Known about the structure:
It comes from Mucisphaera calidilacus. With 185 residues, the chain is mainly alpha-helical. It has one domain (4-184): Four Helix Bundle (Hemerythrin (Met), subunit A). 60% of the residues lie in helices and 4% in strands. It has helices at 4-33, 38-41, 52-67, 93-113, 132-158, 172-184; strands spanning 122-125, 128-131. Strands 1-2 form a two-stranded antiparallel sheet. A hairpin with a 2-residue loop joins strand 1 and strand 2. The longest helix has 30 residues, at 4-33. Residues 180-185 have low confidence and may be disordered.
Amino acid sequence: xxxxxxxxxxxxxxxxxxxxxxxxxxxxxxxxxxxxxxxxxxxxxxxxxxxxxxxxxxxxxxxxxxxxxxxxxxxxxxxxxxxxxxxxxxxxxxxxxxxxxxxxxxxxxxxxxxxxxxxxxxxxxxxxxxxxxxxxxxxxxxxxxxxxxxxxxxxxxxxxxxxxxxxxxxxxxxxxxxxxxxxxx
Length: 185
C-alpha cells in the first residue's frame, strides 16, 4: 500500500492529467468551431447524422448533467432532456457558444474541486454505482468520440480554408527538429 503522501500525489496526478486532457479536447474543438460559420455548424450530411451544432448541444447537456453536484447526486439529472439535445433549436451562434461554454465551465469547476480522496468514492449514473475515476475516464472517451465527429464536420465544411489542428502531413520531421532544438537550450 502506498504511503499517504504518495497516494495523494498520485491522485492529484490523475486529476491534473484528466483536467489537462479535457482542456486539450476543448482547445481542439474550439479551434475547429472558429473555422466555420454558424450555418456550417448546423449542416447535416444527411437527416440521420448529427450536425456540429447538435453535437455541441448534446455535449453541453451531458456536461451539465454529469458534472453538476458530481459527488452528491446522480449524474443523470431528472431535468435533463437527452432527446432534445439532438434537436437543433439554436437561434444564433452566440446562444450555441454560451451553451457550449456553460457545459465546459461546470466540468472544469468540478474537476478543480476534486481531491485525491474523492477518486476513491463512488457516484451514481442512472442509478448505477460507478467509481469517480471510472466516470472521468468514461467522459474523456465519450467527449473524445463526439469531438472527433465535430472536428470532422467542421473540416468538411471549411474545405480548402481549413487550418490543420495538429501536425500537418509531412510535418513530423519538423516537429522532431523543434523538439530536439528545444532540448538543447
